[in-house]
Amino acid sequence: MVELFQSYPLAIVGALVLLALLAGLLLRRGKATRERHRAPDAMDEGVGPAQRNSALINAPSAASKVSLRPVEPVADVAVKVEAEVEPDAFGELAEAVAAQEAATQTDDLTRIKGLGPKLKARLAELGVVSFAQIAGWSEADIAAIDAQLGTFAGRATRDQWVAQAQFLASGDIAGYEAKFGKL
């Protein structure tokens, strides 16, 4: 050890000084964290101020004291519009609205056995969102859909989606459960 000190005196003295500096920094850092001052928090005041201000919170606002003027009755407006529409055109319009509502109706397609959330999302991308749509598929439609289902191709035929959808679209739950089991 003495030979090592005689060979490299500056290196050993430098290492000792470096260790002393590191020890001083570590001790100072630990001391600084203990002496931190905690700033007061709003919750330190307790419940008193919140109870004192509750009268301001519960007081009626100026907006609630404003009176509103009467509005024209809705029935009068409906009579005016109805009088302007021809009876035949109104019937055609009602049929068109009903057809559009039926086309945009979305069903929970995951009720069909073999059709999970991923397939439901893929079918929605393809525009298929109701039991009625699936119930009306032909063999050509099934082939076209299968071509776009990737790894799920063949599921529509194998799991009988069309037959299941026909029961579900008509609301025949008993018939569905008799053929395909419990929903």
From TrEMBL:
The protein's name in its UniProt record: Flap endonuclease-1-like 5' DNA nuclease
Organism of origin: Novosphingobium humi
Regions crossing the membrane: 6-27
Keywords linked to the UniProt accession: Membrane, Transmembrane, Transmembrane helix
